[in-house]
Model the fold of this input.
Amino acid sequence: MRFESGSAVVEFALIMPLVLVLLLGVVEVAVIARTEIQLVHATREGAREAAASPDTSRAAAAVRGALGSNRSDARIAVSRPSTVGHKATVTVSLPYRIATPIFGGFTVTLSSTATMRVER
Done:
Protein backbone atom coordinates (compact mmCIF):
# COMPACT_ATOMS: atom_id res chain seq x y z
CA MET A 1 0.00 0.00 0.00
CA ARG A 2 2.88 2.41 0.58
CA PHE A 3 3.88 2.22 -3.08
CA GLU A 4 0.38 3.11 -4.34
CA SER A 5 -0.09 6.36 -2.44
CA GLY A 6 0.44 8.64 -5.45
CA SER A 7 -1.37 6.53 -8.04
CA ALA A 8 -4.65 8.47 -7.75
CA VAL A 9 -2.88 11.73 -8.54
CA VAL A 10 -1.12 10.19 -11.54
CA GLU A 11 -4.37 8.69 -12.86
CA PHE A 12 -6.12 12.04 -12.42
CA ALA A 13 -3.31 13.79 -14.30
CA LEU A 14 -3.63 11.31 -17.18
CA ILE A 15 -7.42 11.50 -17.45
CA MET A 16 -7.92 15.25 -16.94
CA PRO A 17 -6.79 16.38 -20.44
CA LEU A 18 -9.19 13.91 -22.04
CA VAL A 19 -12.06 15.14 -19.88
CA LEU A 20 -11.25 18.76 -20.76
CA VAL A 21 -11.17 18.03 -24.50
CA LEU A 22 -14.49 16.21 -24.23
CA LEU A 23 -16.00 19.10 -22.26
CA LEU A 24 -14.77 21.66 -24.81
CA GLY A 25 -16.26 19.56 -27.61
CA VAL A 26 -19.64 19.42 -25.90
CA VAL A 27 -19.63 23.18 -25.32
CA GLU A 28 -18.67 23.85 -28.95
CA VAL A 29 -21.48 21.60 -30.24
CA ALA A 30 -23.94 23.40 -27.95
CA VAL A 31 -22.86 26.80 -29.30
CA ILE A 32 -23.23 25.58 -32.89
CA ALA A 33 -26.70 24.24 -32.09
CA ARG A 34 -27.69 27.59 -30.56
CA THR A 35 -26.44 29.43 -33.64
CA GLU A 36 -28.34 27.04 -35.90
CA ILE A 37 -31.58 27.64 -33.96
CA GLN A 38 -31.01 31.40 -34.18
CA LEU A 39 -30.41 31.05 -37.93
CA VAL A 40 -33.65 29.10 -38.44
CA HIS A 41 -35.58 31.72 -36.48
CA ALA A 42 -34.05 34.55 -38.52
CA THR A 43 -34.85 32.78 -41.79
CA ARG A 44 -38.48 32.36 -40.74
CA GLU A 45 -38.66 36.05 -39.83
CA GLY A 46 -37.36 36.94 -43.28
CA ALA A 47 -39.81 34.60 -45.02
CA ARG A 48 -42.70 36.10 -43.06
CA GLU A 49 -41.65 39.59 -44.09
CA ALA A 50 -41.20 38.49 -47.72
CA ALA A 51 -44.69 37.00 -47.72
CA ALA A 52 -46.25 40.19 -46.34
CA SER A 53 -44.27 42.86 -48.22
CA PRO A 54 -43.22 43.11 -51.88
CA ASP A 55 -39.96 44.84 -50.88
CA THR A 56 -37.27 42.13 -50.63
CA SER A 57 -34.89 44.46 -48.81
CA ARG A 58 -37.30 44.45 -45.86
CA ALA A 59 -37.03 40.67 -45.71
CA ALA A 60 -33.24 40.87 -45.68
CA ALA A 61 -33.39 43.53 -42.96
CA ALA A 62 -35.69 41.29 -40.89
CA VAL A 63 -33.16 38.45 -41.19
CA ARG A 64 -30.26 40.69 -40.18
CA GLY A 65 -32.23 42.08 -37.24
CA ALA A 66 -33.09 38.60 -35.96
CA LEU A 67 -29.49 37.36 -36.33
CA GLY A 68 -28.10 39.99 -33.99
CA SER A 69 -24.32 39.91 -33.74
CA ASN A 70 -23.92 37.29 -36.51
CA ARG A 71 -25.52 39.50 -39.17
CA SER A 72 -22.40 40.83 -40.88
CA ASP A 73 -21.30 37.47 -42.36
CA ALA A 74 -24.73 36.20 -43.40
CA ARG A 75 -25.56 35.63 -47.06
CA ILE A 76 -29.25 36.21 -47.68
CA ALA A 77 -31.16 35.25 -50.83
CA VAL A 78 -34.80 36.32 -51.17
CA SER A 79 -37.03 35.00 -53.95
CA ARG A 80 -40.48 36.56 -54.00
CA PRO A 81 -42.91 36.26 -56.91
CA SER A 82 -45.42 39.06 -57.40
CA THR A 83 -48.39 36.68 -57.62
CA VAL A 84 -50.45 36.13 -54.47
CA GLY A 85 -50.46 32.50 -53.37
CA HIS A 86 -47.06 31.60 -54.80
CA LYS A 87 -44.16 30.82 -52.52
CA ALA A 88 -41.68 33.38 -51.22
CA THR A 89 -38.39 31.71 -50.30
CA VAL A 90 -35.62 33.03 -48.08
CA THR A 91 -32.28 31.22 -47.86
CA VAL A 92 -29.63 32.26 -45.36
CA SER A 93 -26.13 30.84 -45.02
CA LEU A 94 -23.80 31.78 -42.21
CA PRO A 95 -20.15 30.78 -41.82
CA TYR A 96 -19.35 29.79 -38.23
CA ARG A 97 -15.74 29.56 -37.12
CA ILE A 98 -14.99 26.95 -34.47
CA ALA A 99 -13.66 28.93 -31.51
CA THR A 100 -11.71 26.18 -29.75
CA PRO A 101 -8.17 26.04 -31.17
CA ILE A 102 -7.80 22.40 -30.13
CA PHE A 103 -10.24 21.42 -32.88
CA GLY A 104 -8.32 23.26 -35.59
CA GLY A 105 -10.30 26.49 -35.81
CA PHE A 106 -12.03 25.49 -39.07
CA THR A 107 -15.19 27.08 -40.45
CA VAL A 108 -18.58 25.38 -40.73
CA THR A 109 -21.26 26.85 -42.99
CA LEU A 110 -24.72 26.76 -41.46
CA SER A 111 -27.69 27.31 -43.75
CA SER A 112 -31.46 27.50 -43.52
CA THR A 113 -34.33 27.93 -45.97
CA ALA A 114 -37.88 29.03 -45.19
CA THR A 115 -40.86 29.28 -47.53
CA MET A 116 -44.20 31.05 -47.04
CA ARG A 117 -47.03 31.92 -49.38
CA VAL A 118 -47.25 35.49 -50.68
CA GLU A 119 -50.13 37.32 -49.04
CA ARG A 120 -50.24 40.59 -50.98
Notes: The two ends are 82 Å apart (CA to CA). The chain has a mean pLDDT of 89.
